[in-house]
Design brief:
CATH superfamily of the largest domain: Argininosuccinate synthetase, chain A, domain 2
Strand order of the largest sheet: 3-2-1-4-5
Number of helices: 12
Number of domains: 2
Number of strands: 14
Strand content: 15-25%
CATH topology of the largest domain: Argininosuccinate synthetase, chain A, domain 2
Structural class: alpha/beta
Helix content: 40-55%
CATH class of the largest domain: Alpha Beta
Order of helices and strands: EHEHEHHEHEHHEEEEEHEEHHHEEH
Length: 413
């Protein structure tokens, strides 16, 4: 059987290349979806290891631009942070990766698509949910989930056959992509211990201070300090520079797709800088109602994406709202980074609602305002509370009286 294997180069998928070829007799093509986070050296090592383990071919599927256009631009537009903290990082990629792999499997005439998701994580659900929509007739193999070999057993199986074991077999599970890096295992398995400094990757020993200006056009980041960059290059640049400043480090403790709690450390320098800057710029150009409704949709969008439901039609509806709301999100955000903390010091836009008003908060009202208007407005806004207090007073008075309730026993008609 010809099998296309979703190959990350880690232990689970390295084990699967060797196991599917040696134990099952399948012809395996290993495909790595590149959503960012790979160095040039890692790309070479991943391809080499796949072939040495038994794959007949290895290929990279470049998905970084597609990831931005299909997912990340909406995470920025929706200011999506799961639990108010986590910008989704690697989880944002999974549904798209599954879609691209399914397309490759169908176009290439493969008999099956295999993945290395375990039974203990979110990715198994994300893959299966996506494949059920985009390729319902494609056979899916998930031996690591279904047979549940332990990591120790996989290492031993490879070693017994003289096969290379991937080098990163420490206590942490590290996943990196364009939108950030996650660190699982070790201390994050409980709710209270912090990661040691040497467990961090992009922000390790980061520090110092810097200022930068980020420019947006219709909600899309387009330049850093006046230098125009395409979105992928801009994000990669901010990950490097922000990481060196120690920016974007955090922890997320939340609800998994499986219904249990989970905790990870994450490093998202670009996401942190862009989301902070974008949100502040929106405050300048959007009305309160636009932001209020968009915040609610952003929460829903992030939750559905976290669950692997990128292809739910409701996601297109929310994206349409986001696109409409971003028409005026054009301008610059001036950002300072100190000690890993991000401070948006100011924003400016040709669509500024602040500049459009002749009023100045705390200084002077609009020339069109009626001095008595504020008093009337205050009374109108307070009317529900006034009525509630009056009703509460009436209830309190009634409770002090003895109510005589006539008996109906023996009542006649």
């Amino acid at each position: 059987m010809r099998v296309l294997l979703a190959y990350s180069g880690g232990l689970d998928t390295s084990f699967l290349v060797a196991w599917l070829t040696r134990e099952q007799g399948h012809e395996v093509t290993a495909a790595t979806v590149d959503c960012g986070g790979f160095s040039a050296t890692e790309r070479v090592d991943i391809a080499r290891r796949a072939l040495e383990l038994g794959a007949v071919r290895h290929e990279f599927i470049d998905a970084k631009s597609t990831l931005f256009d299909s997912v990340l631009r909406w995470l920025i537009a929706g200011n999506v942070r799961r639990g108010g903290v986590y910008p989704l990082c690697v989880g944002a990629e999974r549904a798209l990766s599954a879609e691209l792999l399914a397309e490759r499997a169908v176009e290439g005439g493969f008999d099956a698509l295999a993945h290395g998701c375990t039974a203990a994580g979110n990715d198994q659900v994300r893959f299966e949910a996506t494949l059920a929509v985009v390729a319902p007739d494609l056979q899916v193999l998930a031996p690591v989930r279904d047979l549940a070999p332990s990591r120790e057993a996989q290492v031993a199986w490879l070693a017994e056959r003289g096969l290379e074991v991937p080098g990163k077999q420490g206590r942490y599970s590290i996943n990196a992509g364009l939108w950030g890096l996650t660190i699982g295992g070790g201390e994050p398995l409980n709710s209270h211990e912090p990661l040691p400094e040497d467990a961090w990757v992009w922000t390790r020993d980061g520090g110092g201070e810097a200022r930068m200006t980020l420019t947006f056009a219709h909600g899309v980041p387009i330049s850093i300090d006046g230098v125009d960059l395409d979105p992928v290059e801009l994000i990669e640049t901010l990950n490097r520079t922000g990481g060196a400043l120690g920016c974007g480090r955090g922890y997320h403790l939340g609800d998994t797709v499986l219904g249990i709690k989970g905790r990870i450390g994450f490093e998202a320098p670009a996401a942190t800088l862009l989301l902070d800057a974008h949100r502040e710029l929106e405050k300048l150009v959007l009305t309160e109602e636009q932001r209020a409704w968009k915040d609610q949709l952003g929460e829903g969008y992030g939750r559905r994406l976290h669950q692997g439901l990128l292809h739910d039609p409701a996601m297109r509806d929310m994206e349409a709202f986001f696109a409409s709301s971003q028409a005026a999100v054009c301008g610059r955000a001036h950002v300072a980074v100190r000690g890993g903390s991000v401070l948006v010091e100011g924003v400016e836009s040709p669509y500024s609602l602040l500049a459009a008003s002749d009023a100045r908060y705390g200084e002077r009202p609009s020339v069109h305002s009626n001095p008595a208007g504020a008093a009337y407005l205050g009374r109108i806004l307070a009317e529900p509370a006034r009525l509630a207090r009056r009703a509460a007073g009436a209830r309190a008075a009634a409770s002090t009286r003895t109510l005589e309730v006539p008996s109906i026993t023996g009542a006649t008609r």
